[in-house]
Request: fold
Amino acid sequence: MAYTIGKVAERVGLSTYTLRYYEKEGLLPGIQKNGQGIRIYQEDDIFWIELIKCLKETGMSIADIHYIVELSMEGEHTIPQRKQILNAHKRQLQEQMEIIQRSVHKIDKKIEWYDGKTKECE
Reply:
C-alpha cells in the first residue's frame, strides 16, 4: 500500500514539514517519488518514521538517529552496533524513569502533607 505525505503525517502525528525535514537530514533515505515528484511512502517507511518519532520523543539526537539509519543501510552485519546504541538509549530512559518515579513519590508526600494527611514531609 502506498501513502502520500499528507496521509502519513496524519497517521503518525507529525507535520509534513517534519517529514520533509527528516528526509532532508537523511533519516528517510528510501522515500520514492512518482512521475510528478510526489513522495510515495510504503509501510516500511512508516515503520521507520514511527521509530524515529519514538527516538526523538525520548531524547535521542538527530545525529544519533542518523547514525542508526546509516548503519541500517550498510546491512545486517551492523545489527550488533544498532542494538548497542538502542540498549544504551534504553538504559538512559530507565534511569530517567527511576528519577521521575522518585520525584513523583516526593511530590505526592508533599501534597499529602499540604492536605493534612501526614504530619511528616519526607
